[in-house]
């Protein structure tokens, strides 16, 4: 759950003429998208976050070039402390920790982004349907969302992973199944607000179909809050995946994975490097997404920001 | 089922009982100092019950060893010498009739009742009748009370292993009267398990004070025990992961650790703890399914032999730690009937590649199953699997790892649906006949679809081994297991080490092949 | 169910019922519906697990005997259609029977009774820490808005919610216990300590009640590190939330009026600003409690804390279905009750909620 301040730093609140834009939600939605996103990253936090993320993206992209050794090869002495050759030491099977960390970014990052994209799409679509049609459909979808909320994420994911068997695919399915409701909630409430606004009603009167009005007129209002939510959620997804791997219910070995490395290192306290560095990796990458997400959220209008903040689990 | 989770780790001591005296420094006394007359032992529980006739796991047998006496015992932990326990014994010449005579007439249960022949007969019959996991111990044996001092055990077939079976803590002697009063029967309707968990009915040095299968079992001294009263009047056995055991044993929060890996033992301050390591009675091996539909390439003997040639056994030994041993058959090296370990194959990548060519192996990935949460004597199966994968890759064999929690993995193995993977076996009793499960038609062989008649040669050897008597049994079984291993259906990997770490607060203790750690004898 | 029925009847005659009462009844109805939903989900989920509970219950030998297997199936009702099984399950639940663990044969309710207080103790410890630290940091941050202090606190709170709990737990354990010996080790008490006589099941409270100071200190020493680790996330959360709440309040007229009246700054801060900000914060505390139960699974694993999380983990990895169902149900119910209370607080405080 991440709840942040709905307050905006003064630079954003005053200089972009937010008030004028906010009078017309459609304009606001579209222009906000165009105007503010790059600007958001100019806040110190946003900048730092973007910089860290950029570094990690480069690492993931060029991992094969950066990794000095084959991350799977068990060529070195076991449990070698960091030295000139293995700069972050070796693990219990004599594999180079640095190479493994670098290569692990290639599975973690895309998987987290993928799972968040899927759950954002799934959640928003369900939320939009609930918000637009209301009544019975709304009740059903939102009660299911409540149900999912009622289970702790990790326990639900644990059971799913234990039932389907460990593996990246099953971990993604598990996280997907537990993470869509926050998007559904946000989208639903935004759609409900937009639905009753004059321009949408006008559109309906002009004979726009439900799908068309959802897509053309309501969606633009929903996109930016969802993007913010999704950015924050990537961090959460990385943490949950790492947690599953830590419980050996995630990525299947020998594929390097940060959570699994920590789990291995925890049983070898004297070889602290095995667990310490992967933990730092998780921390920095999640911090990056949270910094960016937080800065982005500050660019939303206070009401929407609160909506995003309160429903994020 | 006989491939099981961490099972009783009888450690075999080639040098018999090892008694460590007088820890050099007394500075190991725990900082809390409040431990007093309690000894704290830690292990990662796999505890389902401490009803002796149902328990079949390491934790349960560790506890029952301290609570129950058995008809026979192993002399000073020497697994080759069954000796008198509550009873003395005599075997008939044809190995079909065993006569037990009650010897310890002063033995008393924890409520003060004397141990009688009726209690022993009831315990044997209950073990047989309730269809629990250890019921197979007395399969085909008829129990008969002769008089108030004598019992006869009549076996259908010659049963030379029986003296080696009776010392098992699963055949502990319970107070028949009390157990019967609490729904205990000698058939499937028995309902005394919960009662026995909370109120042990044994004549050993300890009795149960509290039982919590999830976290902690506390034992207190049995005041009616007929042996010397234990120095520690209380035993606390805690459920703690191996990681935590490392810190607890070092900080003096625990006195005994059962599950440390060799890497973890390495890191301990040798001046602060005592380490007892003995060869374990566990075998770790690769299994290959013989059904082509299921196993694909593993059904081809050439492929299987290529696997055996491609493994780098030295590296695997390294994972097991200092005293790990090679195996040339699934039978532990110290057992009668084991194939000498110097006959175990060495790595030969060229040979492996040639064999693969012969097998026509096209590089397809073979699913390789293992329990991701299991450690055998501190040896992490998940890491072993990764090592094997890397080694076989060098020969061109591709494995795709299929980890699963033990429960799920076991389900698939039982259903004989796994092409290849890691199996472990813990000895139920130290006799080669216990390893008949690996022979066609045996319960483990069934898991890889290996049936009687598939290899007539091996069937013949099996029949010969069963028939052999006395000194002929060892060589006959060795020949059988050598032929069995040569099929490559089982690729023995390593016989690990059973390591117990004891804090310096304990001045002397007994750790031997029969009991990993004898609480009653610790001082 | 009966509640929601009356609730609907009452709806037909709106004028007779006080809106607040109606609001409460509706919430109760929804909560009951949700709890029922939780039973359906746990039941279905565990039936999707591809494993045969009979094999786990019987052990290998008996499972090989088709006759015994058939008998057991019949005894457990597993030969019945799924829907019948569900209603049997529901019927047992209503009588407080959560089934028996396949692994240890101990009734699930009994085990949960054992482990639940452990998790609650950890949760309360973490909540107390997060409320105290989170509120103060949030207040400080808001009062010093846009200063270096504010930025530092905001950044730290973001980092707090970004750290993987299990990693922080391991690092904390290594540093504070293994190296520095500042705190107690794994578990809830040192091994040779006897737990205090059970009243609440919370060792700290029970030992105080029994007047065992040594046990209390020991239990507290064991509690402090896991609570801190677990609290890290919620501290971040509460800091951020209380900051924004306080900022909202500061702008309101009555605070301005209070300042204008010349009241001492401390009075303004604590009597006006803080009080006003407290209400939304309470609701977040409620939500945070739910998230703590989640975080507890990983934290409990590292600290060998024998609570609900560890129990759930063991259940999941051994595919012990009654355990999984029991834990899922209990946590679901706790979450729903917490939400219900949060809703009520909202309803009492904010009349607009009721009207909606």
TrEMBL record, chain A:
**Membrane topology per record:** Multi-pass membrane protein
Any one biological process term the GO annotation gives: transmembrane transport
Q: Where is the composition biased (Polar residues)?
A: 1-15
Q: Which GO terms describe its cellular component?
A: plasma membrane
Limits of the ABC transmembrane type-1 domain: 105-293
Q: Which InterPro entries match?
A: BP-dependent_transpt_permease, MetI-like, MetI-like_sf, OppC_N
Please tell me where this protein is predominantly located: membrane
Q: Which residues cross the membrane?
A: 44-67, 109-132, 144-164, 170-186, 222-251, 271-292
Tell me where in or outside the cell this protein is found. Cell membrane
Q: Which Pfam families match?
A: BPD_transp_1, OppC_N
Return the annotated region ranges for Disordered.
1-20
Keywords (A to Z) from UniProt:
Cell membrane, Membrane, Transmembrane, Transmembrane helix, Transport
Similarity comment: family membership: Belongs to the binding-protein-dependent transport system permease family.
**Protein name per Swiss-Prot or TrEMBL:** Peptide/nickel transport system permease protein
Q: Could you tell me which species this protein originates from?
A: Brevibacterium sandarakinum
Q: What is the lineage of its organism?
A: Bacteria, Bacillati, Actinomycetota, Actinomycetes, Micrococcales
Automatic annotation (TrEMBL), chain B:
The segment annotated Disordered runs over 184-204
Q: Which UniProt keywords apply?
A: Signal, Transport
Instruction: Kindly indicate where the leader peptide sits in this chain.
Output: 1-23
* Alphabetized InterPro entries for the sequence: Peptide/Ni-bd, SBP_5, SBP_5_dom
Where is this gene product found? Cell envelope
Q: Which GO terms describe its molecular function?
A: peptide transmembrane transporter activity
Q: Name one GO biological process term.
A: peptide transport
Q: Name one GO cellular component term.
A: cell envelope
Give the SUPFAM superfamilies listed for this entry.
Periplasmic binding protein-like II (SSF53850)
| Gene3D superfamilies, per the entry | Dipeptide-binding Protein, Domain 1, Dipeptide-binding Protein, Domain 3, Periplasmic binding protein-like II
In this record, what's one Pfam family?
SBP_bac_5
Which residues are in the Solute-binding protein family domain? 88-435
Which family, according to UniProt? Belongs to the bacterial solute-binding protein 5 family.
Q: What is this protein called?
A: Peptide/nickel transport system substrate-binding protein
Q: Which organism is it from?
A: Brevibacterium sandarakinum
UniProtKB/TrEMBL annotation, chain C:
Q: Which chain regions cross the lipid bilayer? A: 20-45, 122-143, 155-178, 219-238, 272-298, 323-349
Q: Which InterPro entries match?
A: BPD_transp_1_N (IPR045621), MetI-like (IPR000515), MetI-like_sf (IPR035906)
Pfam family for this entry, one:
BPD_transp_1
The GO terms this record gives for MF are: dipeptide transmembrane transporter activity
Q: Which Gene Ontology cellular-component terms appear in the entry?
A: plasma membrane
The UniProt record lists the keyword Cell inner membrane: no
Q: Which PROSITE patterns match?
A: ABC_TM1 (PS50928)
Q: Which domain of life is it from?
A: Bacteria
Enumerate the PANTHER family for this protein. D,D-DIPEPTIDE TRANSPORT SYSTEM PERMEASE PROTEIN DDPB-RELATED (PTHR43163:SF8), DIPEPTIDE TRANSPORT SYSTEM PERMEASE PROTEIN DPPB-RELATED (PTHR43163)
Its family remark reads: Belongs to the binding-protein-dependent transport system permease family.
Name assigned to this protein: Peptide/nickel transport system permease protein
């Amino acid at each position: 759950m991440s709840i942040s301040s709905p307050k905006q730093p003064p630079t954003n609140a005053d200089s972009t003429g937010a008030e004028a834009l906010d009078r017309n939600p459609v304009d606001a939605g579209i222009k906000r998208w165009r105007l503010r996103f790059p600007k958001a990253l100019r806040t110190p936090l946003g900048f730092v976050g973007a910089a860290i993320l950029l570094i990690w993206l480069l690492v993931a992209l060029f991992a094969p070039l950066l990794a000095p050794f084959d991350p799977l090869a068990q060529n070195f002495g076991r449990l070698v402390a960091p030295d000139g050759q293995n700069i972050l030491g070796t693990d219990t099977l004599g594999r180079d920790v640095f190479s493994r960390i670098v290569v692990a970014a290639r599975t973690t990052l895309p998987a987290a982004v993928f799972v968040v994209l899927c759950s954002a799409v799934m959640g928003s679509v369900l939320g939009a349907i609930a918000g637009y049609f209301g009544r019975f459909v709304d009740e059903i979808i939102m009660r299911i969302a409540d149900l999912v909320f009622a289970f702790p994420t990790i326990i639900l994911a644990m059971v799913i992973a234990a039932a389907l068997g460990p593996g990246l695919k099953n971990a993604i399915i598990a996280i997907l199944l537990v993470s869509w409701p926050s998007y559904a909630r946000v989208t639903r409430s935004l759609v409900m607000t937009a639905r009753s606004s004059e321009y949408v009603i006008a559109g309906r009167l002009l004979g726009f179909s439900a799908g068309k009005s959802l897509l053309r007129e309501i969606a633009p209002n929903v996109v930016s809050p969802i993007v913010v939510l999704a950015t924050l959620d990537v961090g959460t997804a990385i943490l949950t995946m790492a947690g599953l791997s830590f419980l050996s219910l995630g990525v299947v070995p020998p594929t390097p994975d940060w959570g699994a490395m920590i789990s291995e290192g925890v049983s070898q306290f004297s070889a602290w490097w095995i667990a310490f560095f992967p933990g730092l990796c998780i921390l920095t990458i999640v911090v990056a997404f949270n910094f960016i997400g937080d800065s982005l959220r500050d660019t939303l209008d206070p009401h929407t920001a609160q909506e995003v903040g309160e429903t994020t689990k | 089922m006989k491939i099981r989770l961490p099972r009783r780790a009888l450690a075999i001591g080639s040098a018999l009982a090892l008694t460590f005296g007088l820890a050099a420094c007394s500075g190991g006394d725990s900082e809390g100092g409040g431990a007093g007359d309690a000894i704290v032992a830690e292990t990662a529980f796999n505890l389902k019950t401490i009803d002796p006739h149902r328990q079949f796991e390491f934790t349960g047998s560790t506890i029952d060893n301290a609570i129950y006496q058995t008809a026979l015992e192993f002399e000073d932990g020497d697994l080759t010498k069954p000796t008198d326990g509550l009873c003395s014994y005599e075997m008939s010449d044809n190995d079909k009739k065993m006569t037990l005579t009650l010897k310890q007439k002063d033995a008393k249960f924890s409520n003060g009742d004397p141990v009688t022949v009726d209690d022993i007969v009831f315990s044997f019959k209950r073990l047989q009748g309730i269809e629990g996991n250890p019921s197979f111990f007395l399969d085909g044996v008829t129990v008969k009370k002769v008089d108030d001092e004598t019992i006869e055990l009549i076996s259908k077939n010659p049963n030379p292993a029986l003296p080696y079976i009776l010392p098992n803590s699963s055949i502990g002697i319970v107070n028949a009267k009390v157990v019967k009063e609490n729904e205990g029967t000698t058939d499937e309707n028995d309902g005394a398990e919960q009662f026995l968990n909370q109120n042990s009915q044994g004549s050993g040095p300890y009795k149960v004070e509290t039982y919590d299968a999830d976290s902690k079992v506390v034992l207190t001294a049995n005041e009616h025990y007929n042996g010397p009263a234990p120095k520690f009047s209380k035993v606390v056995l805690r459920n703690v992961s191996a990681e935590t055991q490392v810190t607890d044993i070092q900080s003096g929060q625990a006195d005994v650790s059962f599950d440390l890996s060799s890497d973890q033992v390495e890191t301990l301050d040798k001046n602060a703890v005592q380490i007892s390591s003995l060869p374990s009675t566990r075998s770790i091996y690769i299994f290959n399914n013989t059904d082509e539909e299921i196993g694909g390439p593993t059904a081809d003997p050439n492929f299987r032999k290529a696997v055996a040639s491609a493994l780098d056994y030295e590296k695997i030994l390294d994972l097991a730690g200092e005293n790990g041993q090679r195996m040339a058959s699934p039978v532990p090296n110290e057992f009668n009937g084991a194939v000498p370990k110097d006959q175990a194959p060495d790595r030969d990548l060229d040979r492996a590649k040639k064999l693969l060519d012969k097998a026509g192996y096209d590089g397809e990935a073979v699913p390789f199953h293992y329990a991701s949460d299991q450690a055998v004597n501190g040896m992490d199966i998940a890491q072993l699997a990764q090592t094997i994968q890397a080694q076989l890759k060098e020969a061109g064999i591709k494995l795709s790892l299929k980890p699963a929690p033990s429960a799920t993995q076991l389900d698939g193995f039982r259903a004989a649906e796994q092409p290849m993977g890691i199996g472990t076996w813990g000895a139920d009793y130290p006799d080669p006949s216990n390893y008949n499960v690996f022979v066609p038609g045996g319960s483990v062989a069934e898991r890889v679809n290996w049936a009687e008649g598939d290899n007539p040669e091996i069937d013949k050897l099996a029949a010969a081994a069963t028939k052999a008597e006395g000194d002929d049994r060892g060589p006959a079984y060795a020949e059988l297991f050598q032929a069995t291993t040569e099929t490559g259906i089982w690729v023995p990997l390593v016989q690990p080490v059973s390591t117990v770490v004891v804090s310096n607060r304990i001045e002397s203790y007994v750790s031997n092949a029969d009991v990993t750690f004898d609480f009653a004898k610790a001082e | 169910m009966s509640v929601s029925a009356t609730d609907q009847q009452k709806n037909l005659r709106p004028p007779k019922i006080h809106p607040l009462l109606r609001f409460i009844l509706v919430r109760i109805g929804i909560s009951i519906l949700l709890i029922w939903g939780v039973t359906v989900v746990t039941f279905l989920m565990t039936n999707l697990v591809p494993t045969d509970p009979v094999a786990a219950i019987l052990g290998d030998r008996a499972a090989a005997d088709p006759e015994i297997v058939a008998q057991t199936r019949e005894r457990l009702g597993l030969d019945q259609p799924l829907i019948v099984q569900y209603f049997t399950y529901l019927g047992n639940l209503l009588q407080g029977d959560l089934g028996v663990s396949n692994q240890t044969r101990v009734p699930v309710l009994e085990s949960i009774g054992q482990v639940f207080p452990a998790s609650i103790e950890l949760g309360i410890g973490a909540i107390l820490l997060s409320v105290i630290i989170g509120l103060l940091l949030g207040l400080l941050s808001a009062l010093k808005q846009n200063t270096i202090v504010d930025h530092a606190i905001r950044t730290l709170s973001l980092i707090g919610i970004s750290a993987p709990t299990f990693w922080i737990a391991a690092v904390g354990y290594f540093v504070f216990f293994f190296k520095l010996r500042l705190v107690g080790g794994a578990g809830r008490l040192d091994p040779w300590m006897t737990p205090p006589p059970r009243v609440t099941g919370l060792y700290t409270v029970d030992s105080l009640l029994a007047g065992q100071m040594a046990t209390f200190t020991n239990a507290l020493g064991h509690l402090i590190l896991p609570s801190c680790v677990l609290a890290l996330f919620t501290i971040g959360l509460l800091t951020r939330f209380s900051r924004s709440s306080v900022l909202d309040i500061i702008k309101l007229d009555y605070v301005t009026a209070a300042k204008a009246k010349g009241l001492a700054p401390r009075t303004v801060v604590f009597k006006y600003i803080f009080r006003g900000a407290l209400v939304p914060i309470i609701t977040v505390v409620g939500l945070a409690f739910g998230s703590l139960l989640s975080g507890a699974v990983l934290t409990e694993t590292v600290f060998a804390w024998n609570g609900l999380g560890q129990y759930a983990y063991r259940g999941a990895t051994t595919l012990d279905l009654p355990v999984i169902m029991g834990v899922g149900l209990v946590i679901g119910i706790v979450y729903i009750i917490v939400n219900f209370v949060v809703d009520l607080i909202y309803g009492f405080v904010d009349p607009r909620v009721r009207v909606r």
